[in-house]
Every structure is written in C-alpha cells, then in structure tokens.
Write a structure and sequence with these properties.
By secondary structure, the protein is mostly beta strands. The protein is built from two helices and 36 strands. The protein has one domain: Methanol Dehydrogenase, Chain A, CATH 2.140.10.10. The strands form nine sheets. Strands 1-30-31-32-33 form a five-stranded mixed sheet, with no helix packed on it. It has a four-stranded antiparallel sheet with strand order 2-36-35-34, with no helix packed on it. A hairpin with a 5-residue loop joins strand 32 and strand 33.
C-alpha cells in the first residue's frame, strides 16, 4: 500500500468515525433537542411536534403553489385484521425513520429514507389482551416510550434493536384503567395521564423516571374527602371514587415557567348530575402541574357540573403574542363545549371566550370569570340555558354541540405566521335521555344515553385566539376525527371520515388539493423532511365506536376500515 493510499484510508476511516459519532449523537433525543425543535424542522420528535402544542411545521417545500402536485409516495399496512383495528396515533419522525403505534399497542419502526417505500425495521409487541385507543409514542434518549393496555403499562423500547428496556405496570390494580395519551418527555421524566373514566375509574396524572420507568409521583384528578376541591362533590354516593376526570390527550409544556398543562374529562356518570351534585372538581378542567413535583399550580374548570360529556381533554396550545399592545404568554383551547377560550398561562385568568360553532346549552361565557353566564354557585345542580333533561318524563331538548363536540380529541393547530388557530369541529347536535339506574359497572356508568338524527359534518374554522373572532369557515360534507396540521407552506391539512385527505389555503381556506383513499381517518396528519424532500404522513383506521358518527351518513354504511400509514410527497 502506498503512502497516499494509506493516507486516503486514514482520512476515510476518520470520516467514517466522525459520521458514526455524529449519528450516535443524533440518535439520543436529549432534553435540549426537545426544547429546540426548530433547530431540526425536518423531524417530528413528540406528539404535537413542539412542547407548545401548536402542531405547526416550519417546513415549506410543499406549498400552496405546488400542493396540487402532491401524490402518494408509499403506504405501509399496519396491524393484522384491519377491519377490527384502528389507529389514532401521530407518527414520530427522526432522520427518515418513523415510529407509530396501533390499537394493540404494537410499536413500529419504519425506514422511510428511500422516499419511495416504507420498510418495517422492527415491531415491539406488548401483548395486549384486547384493543384500546392509543395516540402514539414519545422519544427520549435512545428509547421509544409507548403505552400499552389491558393491563395499563408504559413500555420503553430500544430505538435501534426494538428490544424492551423497561416496562412499568401503571394499572394500580384497576382493570378498567387505560393509557391512551402519548407520553410526554420532560427533562428526565415521562409524564402520563390515565383514562377509563367512563368505566368508573378515578383518574390521575403521573411522572415516571425516563431511564428506569420508576414512578416518581402520581396526582389524582379527583380529590379525596378533605382535599382541596372535595367539597364540590356533594353527593352521598362516594361518586368521587369512580368519578372520571380522565386524561386522554397529551398535554403541553412551557420550559420558561416549568409547567405542564393537561385537560381532564367529564364527571361520571356523564349524563346525570343528580348522582354527583356540585361542580365536580377537577373534571372538565385545564390543570397546570409542576413536572418536577406534581404539585398543582392552577386550574380552570370549563363546565361545572357537566351533564353533556363535554370533556376538555383536548390540546391546550401555548402562544406568545400581544394583548392590547403588551406581550403576553397565553393558552388557547378549542373546547368540546363549543367555545374557544384564551387564558393567561401563568394563572389561567381568562382573556376571552366565544363560540366557534353552534352552541345553545348556555347563553354565553362571562368574559371576566370564564364561567357560563347562567352559572349559580348556590346551586348544586346547574341548569344553564335549560338544555338539560333533569325531570322524569320531561320532553327531550336539542343540545348543541353534541357529545362529539365542537372540537374533541382531534387537535387544532396554530400558525404563528397567520396568528390563527385552525379548528376542525363537528357540526351536529343531540338529545340526551337521563337514566338514573346507570350508575354502576353492571349498568354502564353513563346515567343516560345520547341520540341524534342529524348528519354530522365538519367545519374547518380559522379563529383569532386573542379576540376569539372567527375569520373564515369552510364547511365539509363529512365528519372528521383527524385534527389539523398547519405549515409554513401556507397550508392546513385535514382528513375526513369518507377517506379524504385535503389541503387548504391557510388564509382563504380554499381547498387546494385532495385525495380519497376510501377508508376513514381518526389520526392527525404530520409532516417531516428527509434528503431535502418534504412528506406528509397520516394513518387511517377508525374505531368501531365511530360508526355512531356515521349513523346518518348512509352512503358510507358499507365503507371498509383499514389501518394504513399513508405518506405523500411531491
């Protein structure tokens, strides 16, 4: 070997070592990387992409000018018996590799680096006994951390090998408890929320040590007797023990104030407040926690004494903007009860709240307190605008929005360039029948039933979160459970139950592109980039429960359900 050959060999070896070192560094998803996602806009490293929950991507190669040329790049079937399975997870993407979960809790690593085909690298099978809603995974260090259920567990999988590193059972002996929210990695811990409230579970938020899975703290979302807020459960039935307040959508986090904000679900039984008189804290609330200690900083309750299943589990999006010329740190939330609320991030103080869809359960929201105008603190059972059915034999009343919302678990997105929030809301109302025998596991915990003869459709609505004024609305013929994605390309992406994936101009809301793949969606879209090419990815497949949404959409009665990850590119 010549001296030159040896020198070249040494140079190549050094380059190879540096490349491997760089790859190893990139492989660790550090707290620093999670705090600074815009330094690597090509990746989507957590459920909402960013801690603030905006679901906005600074990628703009796919733009309003060229989106008409968007086409299917490749598709990857997920699961096994597709007709019985579903996907509600947001895919994660790092350096061309995708991580996604299905309804059996199976975690997939997919190699998408070719841009032409997706190859499954490994599958982690947590061996669930039955299916459960699952909204995805989290990345931390060299781990992919995902929920599994029946029993409820959090599983950490080695990102390279697909081998389980640790697994923590978080059911605490409660067989109906589930973990459906994607975990949230904050510093050296993993924050999770419990669901299953509609099955009589007293829910909670908890933190695990990210390296070992050890439980660090757990805080119940319903207070026990003697704890602050327990006085709002005024029943003699011990309803607090089975009262719900589920946490089933991933929260947000503000590193500057070190607070993480999670939304909670309805009180149980959902339709009969006479079984659980009082405001029922901390159901239907936004709760701010210190992620280090689990201590509550503040809370805000949207619908005290709820009787319509108006969960407020949806994303609480963080915005830094100006109000009356002054810089403010805000939270905005497109509530299931039909209003857009904007609050101060430090204490939950209301900036304003106005309806973004049809609402008749209240005449409006007090702009100082954030309470419904009819709220009466002296009443154990709220009547609001008289849309409840509390007397036996009373004629049913049409209640708007329906149990589906408004907005629900499918996320809104916020574009810091247009300064608008894009809300995918379900149009349609309902009637509720109270059944005071449904207060236990044998009878279903519901306290009644909801029905609707209306056709559920979608309003894509752009709203100014500071003033809560509607700027633009586009009505779509089929319902959504997908959520929106907004991008620097001037686009908003959304999917519908009829199998349509579409892109809209972020100012006019004009539809610029669509494709129909023939199977319904209940998962949000996301976007990533590899080798200078941008892609949009979304998984299809909706749960059997979604058939109620389609009850009055006869043309979709024979639609098939399939679980497939679709990836689109130019």
């Amino acid at each position: 070997m010549t001296k030159r050959d040896n020198s070249t060999r040494i140079t190549l070896l050094a380059t190879s070592v540096l490349a491997m070192a760089s790859a190893a560094f990139a492989a660790d998803v550090t707290p620093e990387r999670l705090r600074n996602p815009d330094r690597e806009p090509q990746n989507w490293l957590m459920n909402h992409r960013t801690y603030d929950g905006q679901r906005f991507s600074p990628l703009g190669r796919i733009s309003r000018d060229n989106v008409k040329n968007l086409k299917l790049a490749f598709a990857i079937p997920l699961g096994g018996s597709a007709g019985d399975e579903w996907v509600e997870a947001t895919p994660l993407a790092e350096n061309g590799f995708i991580y996604i979960t299905d309804s059996w809790g199976v975690l997939y690593k997919i190699d998408a680096t070719s841009g032409e085909v997706g190859r499954i690298v490994w599958r982690m099978e947590p061996k669930q006994e039955k299916q459960a809603n699952n909204r995805g995974a989290a990345l931390w260090g060299n781990l992919v951390i995902s929920p599994a259920n029946w029993p409820a567990r959090i599983v950490a999988t080695d990102k390279e090998t697909g081998k389980v590193v640790w697994e923590t059972n978080v059911s605490f002996g409660e067989p109906q408890l589930r973990i459906t929210a994607a975990p949230l990695a904050i510093k050296d811990r993993i924050i999770i929320g419990a669901s299953g409230g509609d099955s009589g579970v007293r829910d909670w938020v908890a933190a695990l040590d990210a390296a070992s899975g050890k439980l660090l703290w757990r805080k119940f979302t319903i207070p026990a007797p003697g704890e602050p807020g327990s006085e709002t459960w005024k029943d003699a039935n011990n309803a607090w023990q089975t009262g719900g307040a589920a946490v089933w959508v991933t929260g947000t986090y503000d590193p500057d104030t070190n607070q993480t904000i999670w939304g909670t679900g309805n009180p149980v039984p959902m339709f009969d407040p006479t079984y659980r008189p009082g405001d029922n804290l901390y159901t239907n609330s936004a709760i701010s926690y210190d992620p280090d200690s689990g201590n509550m900083n503040w809370y805000f309750q949207y619908t005290p004494g709820d009787m319509w299943d108006y969960d407020e589990i949806g994303t609480h999006i963080m915005i830094d903007t100006e109000v009356a010329g002054q810089p403010r740190k805000l939270i905005t939330h497109s509530a299931r009860n039909g209003h857009l609320y904007t609050m101060d991030r430090h204490n939950g103080q209301i900036i304003g709240a106005k309806p973004y869809t049809d609402v008749n359960w209240t005449r409006g929201i007090d702009q100082k307190t954030g309470r419904p105008l009819e709220y009466d603190p002296s009443k154990d059972i709220q009547t609001y605008a008289g849309a409840g059915n509390l007397a036996a034999g009373e004629a049913l009343k049409r209640v708007c929005p329906s149990i589906l919302g408004g907005n629900n678990f499918w996320p809104s997105s916020y574009n810091p360039r247009t300064k608008l929030i894009y809300i995918p809301s379900m149009s349609g109302c309902m009637t509720v029948t109270v059944d005071r025998t449904k207060h236990n596991a044998e009878r279903g915990w519901n306290g009644g039933e909801w029905t609707s003869s209306e056709r559920f459709e979608t309003d894509l609505t752009a709203v100014d979160p500071v003033t809560q004024e509607i700027r633009k609305t586009t009505h779509l013929r089929y319902p959504t459970r997908s959520g929106t994605l907004s991008t620097a390309g001037g686009l908003v992406f959304l999917a519908l139950f009829d199998g349509t994936v579409a892109a809209f101009d972020d100012t006019s809301l004009e539809q610029l592109w669509k494709i129909n793949v023939g199977t319904r969606f209940a998962a949000p879209p996301m976007t990533f980039e590899f080798n200078g090419k941008q892609y949009v990815a979304i998984a299809s497949g909706a749960s059997p429960l979604s058939k109620r949404t389609l009850a009055n959409t006869p043309e979709l009665s024979e639609q098939r359900n399939a679980t497939v990850l679709y990836v689109f590119g130019l």
